[in-house]
Specification:
The protein is of the alpha+beta class. The protein has three domains: 55 residues, no CATH class; 98 residues, no CATH class; 237 residues, Nucleotidyltransferase, domain 5, CATH 3.30.420. The chain is built from 13 helices and 13 strands. Strand 3 and strand 4 form a beta hairpin. Helix 12 packs across helix 13. The C terminus is likely disordered.
Length: 421
């Protein structure tokens, strides 16, 4: 039945319709369909033509789709899964449990050897499987649920206690969700992070990332690596590569939706060595085992289709996807306000007054400034010389050589020698 729609290349369940005046989208999952467009009359015609050929029921404005509740207000579109949470608590017989304000205990880490084996692991697997679907609207659960999934093959009593803690947290926050607000900017920004050798059993790393479209959080991921990383830079750069791949997919999707941005996506990383490696054109013996990720990311950076920048650890949003945080509330405050890079603390250094704005808005103190300069030095070497002067340049290069030489695999040493010459 010709309706003028074509299948999107980035998502086989999405169908697009574009003319000079009308734009429409159809999102299909089995027998559930969402219609979107800028012309109500055109959408009515499409629904009418489909009803002539298929038994189709029009449910009106979007309010419920695949367990996700959608509600509109003057503030934007709010997505939640409160009814799904209530059903899950009843299934686990936890509807009257004592609420907790965090999904993960900060006092201990889980191991496969903790506790006694469960006599019937069915309930554990059933509940954890259901929790995975809940992360669609609850990004703060991604790390806790991913960690619980790692013990599906042999859950123990300790693992079940950890899962019950997640449920008790849901008992405390059944109505939390995601808010999508209108945004003046449609630029993509991403944060990536890694917890090097964080697993006590096999010392594999956990990686995570989150992506914002304007001010709205649109994608996130928490995952344990399949191989052991030999250095923190390796694990951080693997996280960078995963986030870069997701950004490429989003760029492709937005292109098909005919949404463009004049600025390339920005990927924020709190590892200075990994940040510099993305722009360094020289290979080293210590980076040969991650050359595929290096080439993939460097190609995007060289084409100026991706900008990688340093962000201080205390402003790293992706931390919540890789490790246990003491204050989960900081994640909500950061993701809701998006003010983490608008701080302009007075640091009392004359040199700071001459720092370009694109470096200054990320700095908390002079040490962070030094790291930022080293991280973006490949592109700003003349600018750095201009506002730093020889003495300041020598001082901060020496500091960074001492702090980051071992981790960066020699990259900073070469950089320092180049600048000092």
């Amino acid at each position: 039945m010709p309706l003028g729609f074509f299948e999107a290349k980035s998502d086989s369940s999405l169908f697009l319709y574009h003319t000079s005046t009308i734009t429409a989208f159809i999102l299909v999952y089995v027998d559930d369909i969402i219609f979107m467009g800028n012309s109500t009359s055109h959408l009515s015609i499409i629904i009418s033509r489909l009803q002539d050929n298929f038994p189709l029921k029009d449910l009106g404005q979007l309010h419920y789709f695949l367990g996700v509740e959608a509600s509109r207000s003057s503030d934007g579109l709010f997505l939640s899964q409160s009814q799904y949470i209530q059903d899950l608590l009843i299934r686990a017989d936890m509807q009257y449990s004592k609420p907790l304000n965090s999904p993960v205990s900060t006092s201990s880490s889980l191991s496969r050897y903790d506790g006694d084996s469960l006599s019937d692991p069915f309930l554990y697997r059933n509940i954890v499987g259901a929790l995975q679907y809940l992360t669609l609207t609850r990004p703060e659960l991604a790390f806790a649920v991913n960690r619980a999934c790692q013990f599906m093959h042999g859950p123990t009593s300790t693992h079940w206690v950890a899962v019950k803690r997640i449920l008790r947290y849901l008992r405390h926050t059944p109505h939390h969700g995601l808010v999508f607000r209108p945004s003046a900017s449609l630029t993509l920004e991403a944060y990536s992070d890694a917890d090097w050798a964080g697993c006590p059993d096999d010392r594999r790393s956990s990686t995570g990332y989150c992506i914002f479209l304007g001010n709205n959080l649109v994608s996130w991921n928490s995952k344990k690596k399949h191989v052991v990383a030999r250095s923190s830079i390796e694990s951080e750069f693997q996280a960078l590569a995963h986030a870069t791949a997701e950004l490429c997919w989003f760029q492709s999707l937005l292109s098909e939706l005919r949404i463009s941005s004049i600025h390339p996506p920005t990927l924020w990383c709190d590892n200075i060595g990994a940040t510099f490696l993305s722009a360094n054109l020289v290979f080293h013996s210590r980076t040969k085992h991650i050359e595929i990720d290096l080439l993939f990311v460097r190609e995007k950076v060289a084409k100026k289709s991706l900008l990688i920048q340093y962000v201080p650890t205390h402003d790293q949003i992706a931390d919540i996807f890789t490790k246990v945080l003491y204050h989960i509330g900081s994640f909500f405050s950061v993701t809701s306000s998006r003010d983490i890079r608008n701080r302009n603390d007075a640091i009392g250094a004359t040199i700071f007054d001459h720092v370009p704005q694109h470096l200054r808005f990320m700095c908390k103190d002079f040490i962070h400034l030094e790291c930022l300069i080293i991280g973006s030095i490949q592109h700003n070497v003349f600018e750095v010389r201009h506002f730093c002067g020889d003495r300041a340049l020598v001082t901060f290069v020496k500091k960074v050589l001492l702090l980051f030489d071992m981790e960066s695999g020699g990259c900073v040493v070469e950089l320092g020698l180049e600048l000092l010459n």
